[in-house]
Amino acid sequence: MHTAVQLTARQARFIDEYLVDANGRAAAMRAGYSSAGAKMAAHRALSNVTISGAIEARQRQDATRLGMDRDRVLAGLLGAVEMAREQLNPAAMVQGLREIGKLMGYYAPKQMRVALDEGQAKAMARFEAMSDAELLALMAGSPASEGSPL
Predict the structure, then answer these.
(1) Is 130 exposed, middle or buried (0-12, 13-18, 19+ CB in 10 A)?
(2) Given 3.40.50.720, 1.10.10.1400, 1.10.10.200, 3.90.930.12, which CATH number is that of 9-66?
(3) What is the residue extent of each domain of the chain?
């Protein structure tokens, strides 16, 4: 049996505010978090499964209510780009194409897997065990200590 998790008033307000502009820091500040801690509060809130699930559910409800889907958004953006082209407005064309690129995932970071042989894996483990000071000294070309792993 699934038990519903209650949101605090501030969490509910964060969700409402996040749905305005998808700006976590601004939403946290509008929800009552201090400006100094707003970025961290937004990160914690957006990492919270209950809060992120509530945001996704509300986004799905809005999309259904408005009759919007990915294809419709793309078609609208393509229409806007074509209109900008006809109006000889290259800045608007670039902006529209940038939004299409984001929606299509063209700007998503690429993740790559690299297979390491045994020697490379050992070297990597040594680097991971080093302190920041040791790594900086190594990069500068002077070992930080006698026991340098390299």
Answers:
(1) middle
(2) 1.10.10.1400
(3) 9-66, 70-104, 114-150
Q: What is the pTM of this model?
A: 0.57
Measured between alpha carbons, how far is 38 from 10 in angstroms, rounded to an integer? 12
Distance CA 75, CA 99 (A): 12
pLDDT tens digits along 87-140: 999 999 999 999 999 989 888 888 888 888 998 989 889 989 999 888 898 888
Which token pair is 39? 């970025």
Structure tokens at 133: 């000071």
